[in-house]
Design a protein that fits this description.
Length: 380
């Protein structure tokens, strides 16, 4: 554990998070960060509602130490904000939550939480959600309100930071990090496996409108002697639209714990993202995770992959199926894998969720002290 993690103290004893991502969905940024906060404060993770209940209520589960997940169960889509406002107030009362940080992943939650009085408001802007499929039309307006209310804004990547930096005075880029010890297991497991009869190219993550399924279809047709594995849930797109071929296998959603063993048999990791509004500002966590696992990466020209990974010669950036195949062939024939892996390890040396969390924690404590000092001056 990072030394800075051992000596953190906060002025708030609880953190209430409002998220569009469910805790038991793909394990990613919210879970990595909040489980670290949970070493120092209680975490209440409030998810989006589930509809179809016989009466309005909420379920509470405790999936991790000091983490409570609250899932509203609503009858219908009528008066949703009013009902959610009541549920949030009830949870705060039930758990005696008074001195707390409000942490937002979705601006839409601000609509039913304006009545709250947290000690600090943080907006961890993971993605440009307004560009995603089925984004609520009022999302941009709600985000503008959240920017006005927030004491701190974090962004999930550098491109996103550049697009938002003029909207807030206390905004900081924090590209997603890695748990190296978790993914490096794949290297050891791979050394114990027999070499694949056919090269295996893999992807894990959410399969949605951000994936260029035509690119995957073309690559599989151009290189039928390679096998392709796709791990992850299919959401917001019709599964029937996915390319079907003898050399493409969809493995569905797998747990975070299973990933190292599953990807150990891959020869190449791919990131076939479409280049559209929904991917303009993404900073895929899987880029450093793939590399920590010892997997060469081929990606389309996503800004936050091109720089820093492409410009540092750590990932192959392609624009066409033919370029993808050429890059794959180069990887499979390369004699400098060990040199590349050393470059990767050097580049990722300081990249960890512990370090990211610690730097965020420092900003949070500094901002809390500034607010206290400003408030004290008012009463002097």
């Amino acid at each position: 554990m990072d030394a800075n993690l051992k000596n953190q103290t906060f002025l708030s004893k609880d953190l209430v998070c409002f998220s569009h991502i469910r805790w038991n969905f793909v394990y990613q940024r919210p879970q990595h960060l909040l489980t670290r906060f949970a070493k120092y404060m209680r975490i209440f993770f409030i998810e989006e509602p589930v509809f179809g209940a016989t009466k309005d209520h909420y379920k509470i589960e405790q999936p991790a130490s000091n983490v409570w997940v609250v899932t509203p169960q609503l009858q219908s889509g009528d008066d949703v904000e009013e009902t959610l406002e009541k549920i949030v107030s009830t949870v705060l009362l039930e758990f005696d939550i008074h001195n707390y940080v409000a942490w937002y992943y979705t601006p839409m939650a601000y609509g039913f939480t304006k009545h709250l009085n947290p000690s600090l408001v943080i907006y961890d802007c993971m993605d440009e959600l307004s560009a995603f499929a089925f984004a609520p039309p009022q999302l941009k307006a709600m985000e503008a309100e959240l920017f006005d209310k927030a004491d701190i804004v974090f962004t999930g990547g550098v491109s996103l930071y550049k697009s938002k930096k003029d909207k807030h005075k206390n905004i900081h880029p924090f590209p997603s990090s890695i748990d190296k010890n978790h993914f490096i297991q794949a290297r050891k497991l791979k050394s114990e496996l027999q070499k694949n009869e056919k090269p295996v190219v893999g992807f894990y993550g959410v399969v949605d409108e951000r994936m260029d399924i035509e690119l995957l279809r073309s690559i599989a047709a151009l290189k039928p002697e390679w096998n392709y594995e796709v791990i992850g849930p299919v959401v917001k797109i019709d599964p029937a639209s996915l390319p079907v071929a003898d050399n493409i296998q969809y493995l569905g959603m797998k747990s975070y714990q299973e990933l190292p063993a599953l990807i150990a048999k891959w020869d190449i990791a791919m990131m076939p993202f479409a280049l559209n509004d929904s991917t303009k500002f993404i900073s895929p966590t899987k880029t450093p995770e793939y590399m920590a696992a010892g997997l060469p990466v081929i990606s389309t020209a996503i800004n936050d992959v091109v720089d820093p990974y492409g410009v540092n010669g750590l990932a192959y950036i392609i624009n066409t199926p033919e370029e993808f195949v050429k890059a794959g062939e180069h990887i499979l024939q390369s004699t400098r894998y060990d040199e590349w892996l050393q470059d990767v390890d050097n580049f990722l040396a300081e990249n960890s969720w512990d370090n990211t969390w610690s730097r965020m924690a420092t900003i949070i404590k500094e901002t809390q002290l500034q607010k206290l000092n400003a408030k004290a001056k008012i009463y002097v």
